[in-house]
Amino acid sequence: MPLVAVTTLFFAWGFITQMIDPLIASVKAVFSLSNTESMLTQFAYFMAYGVVSLPAAALVARAGYGKAIVIALVAMIVGCLVVPLATQLGTYELVLVALFIIASGVTVLQVAANPLVASLGPQKWSHLRLLFSQAFNSVGTVIAPYIGSSIMLSGGVFAAQDGAAVDAARRTESLRSIDTAFFVVVGLIVLLVVLIVASRKRIEAAAPVLTQSHETSILPALRSRWAVLGAIAIFLYVGSEVTIGSLLTNFLHQEDILNVSVEGAGKLVSFYWMGAMVGRFLGSALLLKIPASRLLTLFTLVAAALCLTVTQSGGSVAAYAAIAVGLFNSIMFPVIFTLTLERSTASQAATSGLLCMAIIGGAILPLLGGLISDAANRNMAFFVPACGYIGLFVFALAAGRAQRPGVSGSS
User: Fold this and answer.
1) Angstrom distances, CA of residue 296 to CA of 2, 45, 263, 316
2) What is the pLDDT of residues 361-372, one digit of tens each?
């Protein structure tokens, strides 16, 4: 039961995080933003991981897993309710503040839930357990772009004919659509609060013991070579995955790619995240027979090749190559996370805190992709994730040759 309850959190933050992909296209049109300015949504959201991860670790250590999760969910509700205030005032900057608040709550969930799932059972199945929970995270990421695009990318400014001026009424309609999308998110979180409160005692009983003296600091992790390497890998993985997801709607909408409506392009982004979902279920089976580091080596190499294909092609070839990267993203986060936990000489909590801070890559790399999009085009922006996956390929090779602390031989 604790594993089931915690797995629902993976679904929730997947759903909420990927609502930002259609939001990027929506705010870009409503507020007349450049590609770089629209990517500030991802910057505001993922910057929270860098700022809040340490306080989140302290909160989990002081309050315990169950109470910390409830506090995080309440913070996320507050952030979602700031969005309608921002749209009423017509202020893009306040939308960014709302996203930072929401992401702060998600950060606490990540800090608590990832090591919690890894510990809820035999250590030898930690890869499989975390990958299984991540698969339900993927269910949320598949559903969110479709629902978000249906709500935020239809009507309003998107109903205006190409080249036509957008009047105040259409702009207001699109702003109300953004409100509706985040009210849907509030409803989801309220249901989760009820579930977690009902399961809190069981979660606390099953959770690993926390000690306040060491659990709130990442300094031991900074002294561990593998904790640092794992953090760099998480930075590159999240930054690469988020960059592609952020670019896809406007990329697929382009006349020289698929030439579909913005709403249609936004819905197609679901296939990118569906690839990750399918890959995680398949990856769960593959990890029973193939060493985690070896599977990661293969998947990162293919992902890099697909991104390079996008930079050198157009039309449906570029579109399908970009979408297909999702399938090979599938196993990366849970495998990087657990490979690092196995090899780090620091505690699980310290290592997990550093890894969650590294999710800030989702703030930095998409912004770099936006800058390249404005300076050149969106195809060239795929060089950003291509370089990220090449770095991950090197990490996977090194992890395959590394020896775990206290274990003879390599894994």
Assistant:
1) 29, 27, 34, 27
2) 999 999 999 999
Secondary structure of residue 236 in the 3-state scheme:
helix
Residues 321 and 379: their CA atoms lie apart, in Å, by 11
The tokens of 134 are what?
A: 């991540």
- CA atoms of 152 and 41, how far apart (whole Å): 15
**Alpha-carbon distance 371 to 36, whole Å?**
5
Global model pTM greater than 0.90: no
User: Does residue 140 sit within a domain?
Assistant: yes
Cβ 363 vs Cβ 43: under 8 Å: yes
List the CATH number of the domain containing 379.
1.20.1250.20
Give a yes or no: residue 357 inside a domain: yes
> CA-CA distance, 277 to 273, in Å (whole number)?
6
- The span from the CA of 261 to the CA of 199, in Å, is 44
Residue 88 CA to residue 91 CA, distance in Å, equals: 8
* Residue 156 counted as domain residue: yes
Residue 213: the pLDDT is 46
How many residues would you count in the chain? Answer: 411
The encoded tokens of residue 127 equal 């890869």
Strand ranges inside 10-123, DSSP E: none
Domain count along the chain: 1
165 phi and psi, to 5 degrees? Answer: -70, 140
Asked if 240 and 234 touch (Cβ cutoff 8 Å), the reply is no
Q: Which two tokens stand for residue 211?
A: 């000690």
pLDDT tens digits for range 93-134: 999 999 999 999 998 988 788 777 766 666 666 666 777 787
Q: What whole-number distance in Å separates Cα of residue 133 and Cα of residue 9?
A: 9
Give me the domain span that covers residue 394: 2-401
Chain centroid to CA 271? 16
The structure tokens listed for 317 are 């070839």
Phi/psi class of residue 280: alpha, beta or left (left: φ > 0; alpha: ψ in -120 to 50)? alpha
Residue 408: inside a domain: no
**Sign of the torsion angle spanned by Cα atoms 259, 261, 266, 272:** negative
**What DSSP state is assigned to residue 174?**
H
pLDDT at position 411 is: 36
The 10s digit of each residue's pLDDT in 298-312 is 999 999 999 999 999
